[in-house]
Amino acid sequence: MTMRRVYLDNNATTPVAPEVYEAMSPYLREDFGNASSIHWFGQRAKGAIEDAREQVSKLLNARANEVAFTSGGTESDNTALFGIVEAARGESKHVVTTAIEHHAVLHAAQALERRGVKVSYVRVGPSGIVDPGDVERAIRPETVLISVMYANNELGTIQPLEEIGRIARKRDIYFHTDAVQAAGKIPIDVEKIAVDLLSMSAHKLNGPKGVGALYVRRGTALKPLLYGGSHERDRRPGTENVPGIVGLGKACEIARTHLADSAARIGALRDRLEEGILQTIPGTTVVGDRASRTPNTANIAFERVDGEAFVIALDLRGIACSTGAACSSGAIDPSHVLTAVGRSPAEARSSIRFSLGKFTSAEDIEYALEVIPAVVQQLRAIAARVSAEAPDSRFSAASKHA
């Protein structure tokens, strides 16, 4: 018999929607032109790019000419941070961000520090939500940028961007948000949250991998990361990934059209999964705020369970989930997000992220609820046996501190 496969790792990536695939297909075959060419083939490609730019802008309530296409969320984040800092005047520069950002922001910030830029990493409490007051207190006279993610990739927690945006405007500081995990899941209005730059990625909302966008508010001083052409209004040179851009545009159109209904359906499934686990498995806790978060994400700590062993055991039974960010898969250190919100290293290693998506069904959730309790019971029995036989083992340490 074929094993049932249940995909609950949509924050890592999502399957391409059939409509997106269909929209992309012509630009992989007959409409293959270079958008910079002035002949018919090139103009077909250019027209497709501009249509996609309009589709992306509508999802964000932005102007189409404020959208620049990139290779994905990481490039968008790096362009925002390096671009603003490099364009800023003065010798002394300072950036404010948070301790729970994606590594695309954190590692960029650390690289800026090595160049002499000062960076403040605002701490976040157990809720996983930053206090706007802490952001404001971190501002210095030389602060040139505030970067706070919209929704956290591991917890799903939504940050108070409207308040932070008002602070940034009042202090005349550029404001960037990594919205990779928010776009297509919750409503986004760049005017309402007052951001100057916003990053997004196609493969997180049922589009293709390898393409993303950076919203850049008109008038924002931004230096490009790359040089070699005047593409994307001098913000991102290089021959455009036309099929990918078309796919991103179509994915944004679908997300905007079905956002409310999709969020309600997925949120109900997430709640069913969460409550089923909490009610049937003792020693389980939801990590982070349960109210202000994206409707598809649940991060649950399982006492006396090794997270990596749990993910492998579920995979053997056809269920895909993760211990944290996909970009950190295989990392030895515990999640920086979970330790930043106050979880111990052992607790962080026992936490599992379940992230639902467009194609998650009620049957998928019921199957997961059938499988998970038995797997937890089995892993806890193994941990207890190993602990009894080898008190100094990793399982023993995890058991004592989880």
Architecture overview:
- The chain has two domains: 6-13 and 259-401, Aspartate Aminotransferase, domain 1 (Alpha-Beta Complex); 18-255, Type I PLP-dependent aspartate aminotransferase-like (Major domain) (Aspartate Aminotransferase, domain 2, 3-Layer(aba) Sandwich).
- It contains 14 helices and twelve strands.
- It has helices at 18-24, 40-60, 73-87, 103-114, 132-138, 161-170, 190-193, 231-234, 242-280, 307-316, 336-340, 345-349, 362-389, 394-401, and strands at residues 6-7, 67-70, 94-98, 118-122, 143-147, 174-178, 197-201, 212-216, 284-286, 297-302, 319-320, 351-355.
- Helix 7 links the parallel strand 6 (174-178) and strand 7.
- Helix 3 (73-87) runs parallel beside helix 4 and helix 5 (132-138) runs parallel beside helix 6 (161-170).
- The protein starts with 5 loop residues before the first strand and ends with a helix.
- 50% of the residues are buried.
- Residues 395-402 have low confidence and may be disordered.
